[in-house]
């Protein structure tokens, strides 16, 4: 029943509702910390958001039965160090499924997660507000604008001494029929091979991001490949129709900073080579006999331990209970109702400017 249009509607509705109420009751009261202790604000908000991401992981794995196959290197969050994570962008939802990959590696990895997203996503009710509180990086898809946004946010993380795992989509957009045709046109114009399973990467943005992070505490570059077995949910609408994936595969390859080039042109060539390998890996996955990504390269597969599943169960119990209790208080207590209304109106107004932008300027 959950893998139907009714189940899809319930999925998005409950995620939006729980995120909105979580912000109102657990995050908005922390805003005074922005002036008192910006670093404490960052740590407490990121802890709250991490537990919410675990709840999303729990719903996907335990309630909707999505199987995740994780292989390759472990994403390590070393104190005082940052990581850059690049991944092919097969669907609009890759970043959400990736939370399941990070959770298997460590809670610290998901706690330090920051994502570069399209700027329009900051306005989504509840979920968009949560990403703003998390200080995700919202891009305008213009390098002249985005290089300043990226620099300001990286400076903000350093000011509050926040270690990050930055998920950066080098392709700039998800793979659709339209974007594939654009990628083919780019390849033909620049005498490059056409790719069927990835889009040609935007190497200028990759090189700039690598150089900025290398000026700080960059430890490693993680190259992640994502693939879907059977159903491929292209967008939020697919989930709304109940088209949940049966299996999502991730393969992780670690590149230590010492192994990476430094110069701009060399970094761009390095990125092109990563995507060439990714195209071959995905071609083998989708057309070959072996239907797992870890049959290509490292054979290590990461399973979800019983302890981690236990914590996922606790997350489901907590968030469902907290959401039901919050709704009850809103319906029965006028003070709570007006508080939530004021909080939502305030966030709607702040979203026009971007809480992430405000944070970067503090």
TrEMBL record:
Annotated keywords: Acyltransferase, Membrane, Transferase, Transmembrane, Transmembrane helix
CDD domains for the chain: LPLAT_LCLAT1-like
Domain Phospholipid/glycerol acyltransferase: 83-207
Superkingdom in the source lineage: Eukaryota
GO CC field: endoplasmic reticulum
Pfam families from the UniProt entry: Acyltransf_C, Acyltransferase
Molecular function per GO: acyltransferase activity
InterPro entries found in the cross-reference section: Acyltransf_C, Plipid/glycerol_acylTrfase
Spans through the membrane: 9-28, 48-66, 310-330, 336-355
GO biological process entries: phosphatidylinositol acyl-chain remodeling
Transmembrane helix among keywords: yes
Claim: Ligase is one of the keywords in the record: no
SMART domains found in the cross-reference section: PlsC
Family classification: Belongs to the 1-acyl-sn-glycerol-3-phosphate acyltransferase family.
Name listed for the protein in its UniProt record: LCLAT1
Organism: Bugula neritina
């Amino acid at each position: 029943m959950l893998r139907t249009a009714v189940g899809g509607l319930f999925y998005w509705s409950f995620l939006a509702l729980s995120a909105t109420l979580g912000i109102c009751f657990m995050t908005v009261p922390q805003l005074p910390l922005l002036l008192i202790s910006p670093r404490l604000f960052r740590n407490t908000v990121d802890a709250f958001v991490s537990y919410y991401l675990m709840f999303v992981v729990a719903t996907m794995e335990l309630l909707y039965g999505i199987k995740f196959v994780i292989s390759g290197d472990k994403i390590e969050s070393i104190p005082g160090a940052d990581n850059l994570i690049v991944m092919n962008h097969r669907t609009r939802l890759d970043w959400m499924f990736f939370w399941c990959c990070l959770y298997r590696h460590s809670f610290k990895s998901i706690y330090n997660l920051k994502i570069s997203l399209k700027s329009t996503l900051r306005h989504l009710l509840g979920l968009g507000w949560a990403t703003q509180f998390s200080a995700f990086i919202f891009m305008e898809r213009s390098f002249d604008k985005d290089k300043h946004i990226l620099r300001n946010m990286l400076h903000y993380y350093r000011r509050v001494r926040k270690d990050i795992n930055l998920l950066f989509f080098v392709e700039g957009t998800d793979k659709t029929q339209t974007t594939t045709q654009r990628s083919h046109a780019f390849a033909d114009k620049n005498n490059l091979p056409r790719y069927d399973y990835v889009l040609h990467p935007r190497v200028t943005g990759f090189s700039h991001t690598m150089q900025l992070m290398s000026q700080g505490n960059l430890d490693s570059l993680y190259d992640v490949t994502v693939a879907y077995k059977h159903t491929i949910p292209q967008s939020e609408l697919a989930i709304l129709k109940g088209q949940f994936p049966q299996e999502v595969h991730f393969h992780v390859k670690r590149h230590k900073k010492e192994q990476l080039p430094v110069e701009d042109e060399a970094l761009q060539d390095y990125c092109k080579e990563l995507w060439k390998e990714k195209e071959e890996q995905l071609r083998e996955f989708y057309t070959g006999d072996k239907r797992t990504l870890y049959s290509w390269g490292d054979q290590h597969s990461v399973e979800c331990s019983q302890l981690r599943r236990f914590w996922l169960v606790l997350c489901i119990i907590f968030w469902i209970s907290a959401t039901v209790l919050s709704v009850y208080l809103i319906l029965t207590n006028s003070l709570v109702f007006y508080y939530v209304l004021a909080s939502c109106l305030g966030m709607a107004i702040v979203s026009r400017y971007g809480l992430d932008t405000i944070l970067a300027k503090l």
